[in-house]
Amino acid sequence: MRIVVPQQPTAPLSDAWRTCVGTGRLDLALRRDYQESLALTQREIGFRYIRGHGLLSDGMGVHRPYEHAGERRVRHAFTYLDQVVDAYLELGIAPFLELGFTPSQLASGEDTVFWWKGNITPPADEKEWAELVRAVLRHLIDRYGLDQVREWPIEVWNEPNLPIFWTGGQDGYHRLYEVSALAVKEVDAGLQVGGPSLAPGYRDEWIQRFGAFVEDRDLPIDFVSRHAYSSGPERHVPFGTHQTLMPASALLEQFAAPRQQLAGTRLAGLPLHITEFNSSYRPDNPIHDTAFHAAYLAPVVAGGGDVADSFSYWTFCDVFEEVGIPTALFHGGFGLLTHRQIKKPAYHLYAFMAQMGDAVLARGEDHLVTRHGDGRVTVLAWAPADPAGGDPVDGHTVRLSLPVGSPGARGSAFCRRRSVSEEDGNVWAAWCEMGRPLAPTGRRLDALREAAEPGRSHRSVPVTGGRADVDLVLRRHEVTFLEITPVVDETPEWWDAGRLLGDR
Amino acid sequence: MRIVVPQQPTAPLSDAWRTCVGTGRLDLALRRDYQESLALTQREIGFRYIRGHGLLSDGMGVHRPYEHAGERRVRHAFTYLDQVVDAYLELGIAPFLELGFTPSQLASGEDTVFWWKGNITPPADEKEWAELVRAVLRHLIDRYGLDQVREWPIEVWNEPNLPIFWTGGQDGYHRLYEVSALAVKEVDAGLQVGGPSLAPGYRDEWIQRFGAFVEDRDLPIDFVSRHAYSSGPERHVPFGTHQTLMPASALLEQFAAPRQQLAGTRLAGLPLHITEFNSSYRPDNPIHDTAFHAAYLAPVVAGGGDVADSFSYWTFCDVFEEVGIPTALFHGGFGLLTHRQIKKPAYHLYAFMAQMGDAVLARGEDHLVTRHGDGRVTVLAWAPADPAGGDPVDGHTVRLSLPVGSPGARGSAFCRRRSVSEEDGNVWAAWCEMGRPLAPTGRRLDALREAAEPGRSHRSVPVTGGRADVDLVLRRHEVTFLEITPVVDETPEWWDAGRLLGDR
Amino acid sequence: MRIVVPQQPTAPLSDAWRTCVGTGRLDLALRRDYQESLALTQREIGFRYIRGHGLLSDGMGVHRPYEHAGERRVRHAFTYLDQVVDAYLELGIAPFLELGFTPSQLASGEDTVFWWKGNITPPADEKEWAELVRAVLRHLIDRYGLDQVREWPIEVWNEPNLPIFWTGGQDGYHRLYEVSALAVKEVDAGLQVGGPSLAPGYRDEWIQRFGAFVEDRDLPIDFVSRHAYSSGPERHVPFGTHQTLMPASALLEQFAAPRQQLAGTRLAGLPLHITEFNSSYRPDNPIHDTAFHAAYLAPVVAGGGDVADSFSYWTFCDVFEEVGIPTALFHGGFGLLTHRQIKKPAYHLYAFMAQMGDAVLARGEDHLVTRHGDGRVTVLAWAPADPAGGDPVDGHTVRLSLPVGSPGARGSAFCRRRSVSEEDGNVWAAWCEMGRPLAPTGRRLDALREAAEPGRSHRSVPVTGGRADVDLVLRRHEVTFLEITPVVDETPEWWDAGRLLGDR
Amino acid sequence: MRIVVPQQPTAPLSDAWRTCVGTGRLDLALRRDYQESLALTQREIGFRYIRGHGLLSDGMGVHRPYEHAGERRVRHAFTYLDQVVDAYLELGIAPFLELGFTPSQLASGEDTVFWWKGNITPPADEKEWAELVRAVLRHLIDRYGLDQVREWPIEVWNEPNLPIFWTGGQDGYHRLYEVSALAVKEVDAGLQVGGPSLAPGYRDEWIQRFGAFVEDRDLPIDFVSRHAYSSGPERHVPFGTHQTLMPASALLEQFAAPRQQLAGTRLAGLPLHITEFNSSYRPDNPIHDTAFHAAYLAPVVAGGGDVADSFSYWTFCDVFEEVGIPTALFHGGFGLLTHRQIKKPAYHLYAFMAQMGDAVLARGEDHLVTRHGDGRVTVLAWAPADPAGGDPVDGHTVRLSLPVGSPGARGSAFCRRRSVSEEDGNVWAAWCEMGRPLAPTGRRLDALREAAEPGRSHRSVPVTGGRADVDLVLRRHEVTFLEITPVVDETPEWWDAGRLLGDR
Question: Is B393 helix (H, G, I), strand (E, B) or coil?
Answer without folding.
Answer: coil
